[in-house]
Queue: 2 jobs
Job 1
Amino acid sequence: MADLSPAAQAVFWAFNSKFDWIEDGIPGPQFNAIAAAIRAAADQVVPSDAVEPRNYLPMAIECQRIRKEILAIAEELELEGVLFCR
């Protein structure tokens, strides 16, 4: 878990703090569930340009940068879930 970025760790611990688990007792699928929730939020907050094209290029670039950062957190958590299950 130490390899996660500060943003991904913050998301993980915010989720985990609602339960009486210890770090070693968390099953890998929890990471996948968190990643899925983050992807769903990204789709709602910053839809891809394919879904919602933007006519103003600077805004489109900024929106896609934000989307990429949000999805990177989801990818990190999902990968951590895979590694956790090994």
Job 2
Amino acid sequence: MSDELFEVPIREDRQRMIEKLPLGETVAIARRVDLSLGADPEKISQHNKQVRGILDQQTHRARRKIKTAEYKVENGSFLTRDGSLIIVAVCTRTG
């Protein structure tokens, strides 16, 4: 066993990332849903609402804090090659 210490850098949280976004850049949140056991449309809809809701809240806070910034939040989903569903919400600084 080694006595080496490793420094783990602190990752910037998503809220700060949104607040620091340069014009035209994006911050995203994604959730992977394994569809191998079937797809429950109600659960997929719930995941979509949760992911979008999280980013909507953080973007709303950024709008209140940075009065001159404009943001657009969008969401969607896509299937991976192995049959999983990726649900994504994206915040873009538009102004």
